[in-house]
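Quick start: read one record
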Amino acid sequence: MRGKKVVNSAEDPIYINEDLTRYRAHIFKHTRKSFKSNQINGCWTRDGKIFIRERKPDGTDGSIKRILSIVQIPGYKPTPEELLHFNLSQNIQSEPEATAV
Protein backbone atom coordinates (compact mmCIF):
# COMPACT_ATOMS: atom_id res chain seq x y z
CA MET A 1 0.00 0.00 0.00
CA ARG A 2 2.86 2.39 0.69
CA GLY A 3 4.21 1.89 -2.84
CA LYS A 4 0.94 2.82 -4.51
CA LYS A 5 2.08 6.41 -5.12
CA VAL A 6 4.76 5.11 -7.49
CA VAL A 7 2.14 3.18 -9.44
CA ASN A 8 -0.24 6.16 -9.57
CA SER A 9 2.43 8.49 -10.98
CA ALA A 10 2.61 6.57 -14.27
CA GLU A 11 1.01 7.86 -17.49
CA ASP A 12 -1.83 5.37 -17.17
CA PRO A 13 -2.45 5.43 -13.41
CA ILE A 14 -3.56 2.33 -11.55
CA TYR A 15 -5.72 3.00 -8.52
CA ILE A 16 -5.14 0.89 -5.42
CA ASN A 17 -7.54 1.36 -2.52
CA GLU A 18 -7.86 -0.29 0.86
CA ASP A 19 -10.71 -2.70 1.42
CA LEU A 20 -12.64 -0.87 4.16
CA THR A 21 -15.64 -2.09 6.12
CA ARG A 22 -18.98 -0.70 4.96
CA TYR A 23 -19.11 1.69 7.95
CA ARG A 24 -15.57 3.01 7.44
CA ALA A 25 -16.11 3.34 3.67
CA HIS A 26 -19.17 5.47 4.45
CA ILE A 27 -17.13 7.68 6.78
CA PHE A 28 -14.30 7.96 4.25
CA LYS A 29 -16.75 8.95 1.50
CA HIS A 30 -17.81 11.91 3.61
CA THR A 31 -14.21 12.85 4.46
CA ARG A 32 -13.49 13.02 0.72
CA LYS A 33 -16.52 15.31 0.29
CA SER A 34 -15.18 17.50 3.09
CA PHE A 35 -11.80 17.61 1.31
CA LYS A 36 -13.38 18.55 -2.03
CA SER A 37 -15.31 21.39 -0.35
CA ASN A 38 -12.06 22.70 1.24
CA GLN A 39 -13.11 21.94 4.83
CA ILE A 40 -9.90 19.93 5.35
CA ASN A 41 -6.53 19.83 3.59
CA GLY A 42 -6.30 16.07 3.09
CA CYS A 43 -7.71 12.65 3.90
CA TRP A 44 -6.36 9.12 3.63
CA THR A 45 -6.58 5.64 5.09
CA ARG A 46 -3.87 3.41 6.47
CA ASP A 47 -4.46 -0.07 7.89
CA GLY A 48 -8.21 0.53 7.90
CA LYS A 49 -7.93 3.75 9.90
CA ILE A 50 -9.12 7.10 8.54
CA PHE A 51 -7.01 10.24 8.93
CA ILE A 52 -7.48 13.89 7.96
CA ARG A 53 -5.19 16.90 7.83
CA GLU A 54 -7.06 19.77 9.39
CA ARG A 55 -7.18 23.20 7.79
CA LYS A 56 -6.08 26.26 9.76
CA PRO A 57 -8.13 29.47 9.41
CA ASP A 58 -5.48 30.88 7.03
CA GLY A 59 -5.82 27.80 4.77
CA THR A 60 -2.49 26.19 5.67
CA ASP A 61 -2.03 22.63 6.88
CA GLY A 62 -3.13 21.93 10.42
CA SER A 63 -2.63 18.87 12.59
CA ILE A 64 -3.35 15.28 11.62
CA LYS A 65 -6.39 13.77 13.29
CA ARG A 66 -7.76 10.24 13.28
CA ILE A 67 -11.47 10.01 12.49
CA LEU A 68 -13.40 7.44 14.54
CA SER A 69 -16.95 8.57 13.78
CA ILE A 70 -18.79 10.48 11.10
CA VAL A 71 -19.65 13.28 13.54
CA GLN A 72 -15.94 14.19 13.78
CA ILE A 73 -15.71 15.21 10.12
CA PRO A 74 -15.41 19.01 9.72
CA GLY A 75 -18.33 20.44 7.77
CA TYR A 76 -20.49 17.30 8.05
CA LYS A 77 -24.02 17.77 9.40
CA PRO A 78 -24.82 14.54 11.30
CA THR A 79 -28.35 13.20 11.58
CA PRO A 80 -29.92 12.89 15.04
CA GLU A 81 -29.46 9.10 14.86
CA GLU A 82 -25.74 9.50 14.15
CA LEU A 83 -25.36 11.90 17.07
CA LEU A 84 -27.19 9.53 19.39
CA HIS A 85 -25.05 6.58 18.29
CA PHE A 86 -21.86 8.63 18.76
CA ASN A 87 -22.91 9.86 22.21
CA LEU A 88 -23.85 6.35 23.32
CA SER A 89 -20.55 4.89 22.14
CA GLN A 90 -18.62 7.71 23.87
CA ASN A 91 -20.48 7.03 27.16
CA ILE A 92 -19.76 3.31 26.98
CA GLN A 93 -16.05 3.94 26.43
CA SER A 94 -15.77 6.53 29.20
CA GLU A 95 -17.67 4.65 31.95
CA PRO A 96 -15.40 3.16 34.61
CA GLU A 97 -15.62 -0.57 35.01
CA ALA A 98 -17.52 -1.82 38.02
CA THR A 99 -15.39 -3.45 40.69
CA ALA A 100 -16.44 -6.67 42.32
CA VAL A 101 -17.06 -6.51 46.06
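The helical segments are 4-8, 22-36, 80-94.
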